[in-house]
């Protein structure tokens, strides 16, 4: 607390990102980063953009990137919004669509940035409990509300919903925005993007951080009908006209166009997810069915906190959300095949100790 803070700053509940250690090298399976690195074409494009042109501001409309993204979905650039990571896109969406309208609905176990944005923007919210198996009964997302947020696949569970289930939520709540956070969509679930042209209340948010391995570049985007995109743009242009710098615009466009690299790396992650799931199950873990680049797994013998600590001592970082229903579970990002093997052998060593 400082006497210089504006009212409300002390009451914020900031998001805690996963640890980014600086002191030693860990096998980092704690922040859902992609182990394979970005497209070499993206690196090349970033290099080419590094020069005297950096004295000039970037395109404030990100037109080339938005056009390329939209084209992949059969949508015009007027259906695409780009931001500095999808976290910023989410923040602008909360600001633009959910304020001053009553309670926002989202599941009790989901991305922990949602309550943080609600607190920042003064949005009341109601967390709808997932079922005991962590699945989402979408019928429960109904009734008068300011809007609905669904992460699909959900985080940190990894469980995916079929588009038809989310389509019923869109139909049952036609007067509010239904935001579908598809940060992990490219690892095996079906996107709502094909429904954007049909539903004026649908906003789909995706990121380059996970499936395109560009967490460090900070690029995310939203797909929606032009009225929603215009709302987001009004917020953006009242906040920061240039959220994407020249390097981000160049790198993201090249990464988007390198579909071969994208497909090769995401399929490796999916194959290793299947192997890691089987390996963890063989060691007594409960593992939820994941369509993401991580698994949510509950150890036996040791508690989740003890397992996290034992792995940390052996040089492996995983993530634990130590409160409430997720207390017995660990979120483990899918690394390389070698990372997954190392994790399994360290678990064997921990159990033998
Ligand atoms: C990682 C993640 C994001 C944010 O990603 P950015 O790096 O900000 O693009 C958004 N939603 C969920 C559910 C995530 O896991």
From TrEMBL:
GO terms for molecular function: histidinol-phosphate transaminase activity; pyridoxal phosphate binding. InterPro entries: Aminotrans_II_pyridoxalP_BS (IPR001917), Aminotransferase_I/II_large (IPR004839), HisP_aminotrans (IPR005861), HistidinolP_aminotransfase (IPR050106), PyrdxlP-dep_Trfase (IPR015424), PyrdxlP-dep_Trfase_major (IPR015421), PyrdxlP-dep_Trfase_small (IPR015422). It is an enzyme of class 2 (transferase). Keywords: Amino-acid biosynthesis, Aminotransferase, Histidine biosynthesis, Pyridoxal phosphate, Transferase. Pathway: Amino-acid biosynthesis; L-histidine biosynthesis; L-histidine from 5-phospho-alpha-D-ribose 1-diphosphate: step 7/9. CDD domains: AAT_like. The modification N6-(pyridoxal phosphate)lysine is found at residue 210. Its EC number is 2.6.1.9. GO terms for biological process: L-histidine biosynthetic process. Homodimer. This is Histidinol-phosphate aminotransferase. It comes from Paenirhodobacter ferrireducens.
């Amino acid at each position: 607390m400082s006497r210089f803070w504006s009212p409300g700053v002390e009451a914020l509940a900031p998001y805690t990102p996963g640890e980014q250690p600086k002191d030693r090298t860990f096998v980092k399976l704690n922040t859902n980063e992609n182990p394979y690195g970005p497209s070499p074409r993206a690196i090349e494009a970033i290099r080419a953009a590094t020069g005297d042109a950096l004295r000039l501001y970037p395109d404030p409309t990100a037109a080339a990137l938005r056009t390329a993204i939209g084209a992949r979905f059969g949508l015009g650039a007027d259906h695409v919004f780009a931001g500095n990571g999808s976290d910023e896109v989410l923040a602008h969406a909360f600001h633009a669509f959910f304020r001053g309208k009553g309670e926002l609905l989202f599941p009790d176990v989901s991305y922990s940035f949602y309550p943080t944005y609600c607190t920042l923007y003064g949005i009341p919210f109601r967390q709808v409990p997932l079922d005991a198996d962590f699945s989402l009964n979408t019928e429960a997302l109904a009734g008068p509300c300011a809007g609905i947020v669904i992460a699909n696949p959900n985080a940190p569970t990894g469980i995916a919903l079929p588009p038809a289930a989310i389509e019923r939520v869109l139909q049952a709540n036609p007067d509010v925005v239904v935001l579908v956070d598809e940060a992990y969509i490219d690892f095996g679930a079906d996107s709502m993007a094909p429904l954007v042209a049909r539903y004026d209340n649908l906003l789909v948010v995706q990121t380059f951080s996970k499936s395109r391995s560009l967490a460090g570049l900070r690029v995310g985007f939203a797909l929606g009908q032009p009225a929603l995109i215009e709302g987001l743009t009004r917020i953006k242009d009242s906040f920061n006209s240039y959220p994407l710098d020249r390097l981000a615009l160049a790198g993201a466009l090249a990464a988007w166009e390198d579909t071969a690299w994208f497909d090769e790396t995401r399929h490796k992650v999916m194959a290793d997810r299947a192997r890691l799931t089987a390996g963890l199950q063989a060691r007594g873990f409960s593992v939820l069915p994941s369509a993401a680049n991580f698994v949510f797994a509950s150890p036996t013998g040791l508690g989740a906190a003890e397992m996290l600590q034992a792995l940390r001592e052996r040089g492996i970082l995983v993530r634990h959300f130590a409160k409430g229903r997720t207390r017995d579970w660990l979120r483990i990002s899918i690394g390389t095949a070698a990372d997954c093997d190392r994790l399994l052998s360290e678990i064997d060593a921990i159990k033998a100790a």
